[in-house]
Amino acid sequence: MPPPLVGAVPVGAGAGPMTLADTGRVVRPSWAEVPGAVRAIVEERLGVSVRKAWGQVGGFTPGLASRLALADGRRVFVKGLPATHAQAASYRLEGRVAERLPERAPTPRLLFRVDDEWIVLAFEDVDGREPNVRPGSPDLAAVLSALNGLAKAFTPCPLPDAPSVLVDLAPLLRGWAALAVAPPADLDPWASRNLDSLVAVETAWHPWAEGDTLLHNDLRPDNMIRRVADGRVMVVDWSYPCHGAAWLDIAALVPHLLLAGHSPADAERLVLSRPAVARVPAWAVTGFAAAWAGYWELNSRLPEPAGSLGLRAYQRRAAAVARWWVAHRTRWP
């Protein structure tokens, strides 16, 4: 039996009408910069040499992310990090998760993983692009359909050793309580006036969090690929799995719609009408919104991680848009 899955801290998202292209980007190594011995192992597992490589953008982890064209005409996607890197554990976890996901899941198939001088994950290549979730985009329907598909494909949870969302994620989403100990002088005036209420409500989602669905816990547009062939949206980067109620992954899309230019009312109309969310009390959804706002507010004040560009600015925008969502729902002064 494999060791139990242990989650990690999600990196969070941004705020305001923007896309990831508007933010700072992580500096990624190219395929040519991967040690020769590691590239040789990958080619041996592939059974053929690599003819060409294209670096990919997206996310804030400073690891390899390249599409490889092989000598036999096939293509694969590889991602990786040195085994000594601080975030190598999350790559190991992603590999262990990916190799155990059911075939029907809307996610690329893991071909193999290498755990040597580098951790390298090789996936089937998906010919597609990040979906556009701005208002009026035809990609919106495909994204919402993918969210429904995830809940169906991953209920019951296919990973019995995945941690509970209340054990793994809930302790991280207590940002307002942490900030209330010594409120920052530059805290947003609305948040400062309503800090006690934010502390009180940020755990309101807990009674509705239990469930038997495998949760991604970091669903955002740059963790999705819309396939050229059929328009289907695939979900990637399974680094933070938990089991819990399906509505949590679905409701977490709202801030990303806000940062793409939707109003809170329009974003809620698209997302909260999903069957898995419609059954959840309004106060629980409000608590979940407040919890993410506090998480981003707190983490945006930490030092910038090595190798990442713009993560903290991105989280400040995330906090702002999540506060907007909470203010819309509560009408607090």
TrEMBL record:
Domain Aminoglycoside phosphotransferase per the UniProt entry, residue ranges: 74-254
Domain of life of the organism encoding this protein: Bacteria
Pfam families: APH
Annotated protein name in UniProt: Phosphotransferase enzyme family protein
Native organism: Streptoalloteichus tenebrarius (strain ATCC 17920 / DSM 40477 / JCM 4838 / CBS 697.72 / NBRC 16177 / NCIMB 11028 / NRRL B-12390 / A12253. 1 / ISP 5477) (Streptomyces tenebrarius)
Phylogenetic classification of the source organism: Bacteria, Bacillati, Actinomycetota, Actinomycetes, Pseudonocardiales
